[in-house]
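<context>
A single protein, sequence plus fold
<sample>
Here is the protein in question:
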Amino acid sequence: MAKRLIGTGLYIDNVGGIIVETEAYERDDPASHSFRGPSPRNAVMFGPPGHAYVYRSYGLHWCLNTVCLPGSAVLIRAIEPRAGMETMRKRRAMEHLHLLCSGPGRLCQALGVDGTLNGFALDHRPFRLEFADAQPDIAVATRIGISQAVEQPWRFALCGSPFVSRKVT
């Protein structure tokens, strides 16, 4: 699913763009919030697929994931802004287009994602997903911003996109 989401349009109340970077997390993955089993914080990860798992990273930034299988989710790391640019710029208090949604915390701030969206179905308002007709060229790399299972090649990015959080080589 992490690969399939690359090139997909993600919109929240008509603000958003094209997903250009994701990371996968599985149930038995020590870097996953689900690794130690269900808890009040990660309960959504053990629910039905296609729902938003939203959490705070280090108590500072919201992060948006889509649940795939029980205990497995895909972190949306970056999008290419396409709609609602003025709203995103206002929320982020910045003009630079390439930095609006480059990274999970920036993306959530720009799209207005917070804990109130945790558990929402991604195929219902305020969310809208528009899957691409064809799979674009995808670069594969190891995940970033974690301290365990860093060797897993579960980070995916749209080849050549200037909107990714960190260049994929």
Summary: The first strand starts at residue 9 and ends at 12. The chain has two helices and eight strands. Residues 85-92 form the longest helix (8 residues). Helices lie at 85-92, 104-111.
